[in-house]
């Protein structure tokens, strides 16, 4: 209160208030006159692995630069060489966010303090990922097959420029096109515009970015520095990436009995959950991951009736792997668990595997079946793969597409199946929409979103109506899901007469596409989620970046969504009450060894406001997906993923005006002059004080 | 606005007060005590007036901006009046203390004349008032940005430092003149000091038209300096004496 009043007196003493009289003195009002904080920024952060650090770093007290809005690649001359007021903070639109521009700015880091990317229109193609994803942790090593290693035969991502894996020592932030960007551009046009080649007038508009990362060099260094702290609560400098895989068997096993199961044969149906972009928090991944796992979820739902009526001989495991982008975290973890008897089955129980890759962007009416040529040199494996191909191809009868095998000498695309092959020669197929290199023009980038999949809704629909509207993309994915479900049923030895009853539901598929790519906070997702998790539903799509492995049993939003959806689509609703749902073992027919019991919100009936919540009995489990390298303490592992993310204290951005150096030096000069003058004058007056102020004593002295 | 501006503004605002402190006050512990007590009295007056303002703002509609603006002006005027009241109170306190100090002192008579106490008290008021005006702004001047984003003048820091300097010196001169007026029972002096203080406050409302506010304030400061010089025993004769002394000291 005191300081408030003093602050207010200061305001009035030095500045008269006009229209904007701010009463809530949340922080210092002078600071409010100077800085405009930018709140909706997404930074590029630092990631480390066994050998490198990638990403961006700012200095510990932030990096300041004069704002320059880049208009074209030729305009780069201004910040790089011609501009008179370095360092510059370069603001560019997404169409100019290319590798050549970023590399030029990286090389001139003394003149470029940082880069801000404004997300606007999508460029025709852009992939910041590498050309050969997960090159060293797949199955194609020098020893496996020399010709197929390092993408010698097929470059899977030819458009990849590797920008996500470069190291920048200046901060790079991303902004959306909204009010804050308008403020920045207005400030730039008011103060920084060069008029007719004449010099710029101070004060200039500048921006400061803070994104100081604590970890350096590589994972081994930062893990060593983290554990060197001897206090009770060690301060971590970096965190391993990881999450949870979502797994569900059709016939669940006792979840405490690990290791080999006698006479059990399992067909694995796999898909990838995660994705990434240059700015990690902006990961979309529509074609990269959503198309695959939505198809698999729909197939799981299609199989539910048939497998409950007439269970097939083999079991089917639906496995959704997380962290696959970062050197196959999820699948390598599962293989490691299987080899070390830490999973309910082991590798001997695995019969075959069908993986759904990217399936939504077709270049014709065909989808393609990729297999591994090296393992197929073995006749048994070859026969099994041929059988699986036959099952798949016969499953497309009556559907509007067909499945074609790829060229025999072509290796597998990047897929979780490669990690299983690394352990054992298992027969398997990867289903994808591309015959050679991928069709995804925006692989692992921010632009791989709903628009990329042509997910368009008529403009006059409300959000709930959009949820129900069946798009063309949904129809084509439904057909793929139907084929997958039928093939899995046949592969698992199901009765052939039941096959044609297996159909995926287009309504489910379109609702899932809407929820995962447009807005996750819709009525269907709300109905399948648990009450305590309903806050993870947002008006935006969820994040597809895997994130760091949390020590508590908390997964990220995407994992929970997939878990609860799979539970809803493959589980059964029970009559248990909420308290029974928490402790179902007390009831005679329920067992938490086999099933997990989830209390979900349920729908709101038309005439009431209360949700009809109920308890779902499901075989879905979350399995920890952290790279085995961290359990083994081998931070330089070449075998497993060693990706970690650096920690930081705070990340923020702000804009303000900077004054000219001349004015600053003038102020300092005037100050020093005032100080010296006052020292001299005071000294002089003090020594002559008895002469100057003598009228008090004079009457006494003048008495004589 | 970086370290250069920080030090520049700090030197401008507090340079003269600092030099006055070093050369005239620091060596004498009694003067230091009176200085700090004077600063404290100013602080208490600000506290009480802020209490009044706080109650007034909480009791009224916070959304009505013109009302809040007027309340702030009212609060500031009340604060000016209260500062002068506390200056008077400090004068009374020092007079009482002076008698006690004279009794226990080793020399004959009081250790400090009323004039010296007036000057020290005024400087105490001035330093604390300057500190409160300037410290907030100074801490923000260390950052990389300068004022101006929302249309304010970019000379904000320099002008607030200049205003603070003027205010500090003005409080010193007012202290001298005020105590002298009370000593001689010339009560009109108190009224004049109060009016000049209010005039300086209203001139500060003219910011950011810095020419219209700083130049008149400095003119008033010079006038007050002259008045303080004469009321503390100086005269034109002494100044000429100074010059002749200087000429006499020249080697022949």
TrEMBL record, chain B:
- Which UniProt keywords are present, listed alphabetically? Membrane, Notch signaling pathway, Transmembrane, Transmembrane helix
User: Topology relative to the membrane, per the entry?
Assistant: Multi-pass membrane protein
Tell me the InterPro entries matching this sequence.
Aph-1
Q: Where in the cell is it found?
A: Membrane
Q: Where are the transmembrane segments?
A: 6-25, 32-56, 71-90, 117-135, 155-179, 186-203, 209-230
Query: What Pfam families does UniProt report for this protein, alphabetically?
Result: Aph-1
Q: Name one GO cellular component term.
A: gamma-secretase complex
BP terms from Gene Ontology = Notch signaling pathway; protein processing
The signal sequence is: none
Q: What does this protein do?
A: Potential subunit of the gamma-secretase complex, an endoprotease complex that catalyzes the intramembrane cleavage of integral proteins such as Notch receptors.
* Assembly description: Component of the gamma-secretase complex.
- Similarity remark: Belongs to the APH-1 family.
Q: Which PANTHER family match?
A: GAMMA-SECRETASE SUBUNIT APH-1 (PTHR12889)
> What is the name listed in the Swiss-Prot or TrEMBL entry for this protein?
Gamma-secretase subunit APH-1
